[in-house]
Amino acid sequence: MFHTFAARKIENQIHKQMKLKIAVLAGDGIGPEISAQGVAVMSAVCEKFGHEVTSKEAICGATAIDAVGDPFPEETFKTCMDADAVLFSAVGDPKFDNNPSAKVRPEQGLLAMRKKLGLFANIRPVQTFDCLVHKSPLKDELVKGADFICIRELTGGMYFGEKKEGDDYAYDTNAYTRNEVERILKVAYQYARQRNKHLTVVDKANVLASSRLWRKVAQEMAPQYPDVKTDFMYVDNASMRMIQEPRFFDVMVTENTFGDILTDEGSCITGSMGLLPSASTGEHTPVFEPIHGSWPQAKGLNIANPLAQILSVAMLFEYFGLKAEGELVRKAVDASLDANVRTPEIQVEGGAKYGTKEVGAWIVDYIKKA
Ligand code: IPM
Ligand code: MG
Fold first, then answer.
1. What is the pTM of this model?
2. Atom from ligand 1 closest to the CA of residue 122
3. Out of 120, 191, 302, 331, which residue is the most buried by the measure of CB atoms under 10 Å away?
């Protein structure tokens, strides 16, 4: 997968050896544990290919609220802006989840990061692993070979629209401008062109005005991409189609809220939430992160699956045009699965249970020997 925004780095790519400055935001819960494995894998690959990588850690989420009262402090923002890429893990803490009146929440840090870095395009691949098909709640024959990408708009819609939060009355506004819709559709078309040339625009145009703008803009743009088959699907129908026939999809594009919901559904198709990485790109530093959350109950237990984080590192390399590097990470992940070096939730019955650290170490070792 190659992202067009990588153009920014073209100069660097000409020289095979790259200098990468990475901001590492481990966040909360299992974040620090999976982050450590992601960083270790990134370093091993860089060493192998002769790239120079420097990483700088910065706080965010509940950890940052506890430390400085702000889930995305100015200093963290500066560290991100100063970096070539951000390797992000997860934020969230139950002490906030159960307190609707909390003034400041860890998730606001994530939203602030997205907004301040202008990360309007969230790329979430839903890819299945043949050896894990049986872990999916869906029937094997439905899941096998399912492979699509959800492109989620990330800085608009209800997440950021005007809101009011009163005791008896509250609202969120789902606002989109033509420009916001156009730029995300462009990204989606570029992905569709590099894949199987099938784009599904997911909306709720039978009810929502904002969706009708999406549909109108997409219909206007479609003729510019005659090689891509564009179709439209209502979000309720899309959620059904995803589990009835996940192979139908190649690239789907949708607004922020629908994308949030559909990608959780997508992650279930694969059998474990711990497997799916994502990239968020846009105006400033791109961010690479697992799609799962901070799983606070597992914090410190060394049971969280580091693969989504490690695959985020593969996406990071691919973003910079470092194809072989990304491929090696993917190969190492596949090999670990084949060798049954797996965290408990995807281990075969009776198989040895590996911890977060052990899976990470195995993958690092594989990369070193490759
Ligand atoms: C996601 C998450 C976030 C979102 C939360 C943590 C704010 O669910 O990245 O999908 O809703 O976007
Ligand atoms: Mg979500």
1. 0.92
2. 9
3. 191
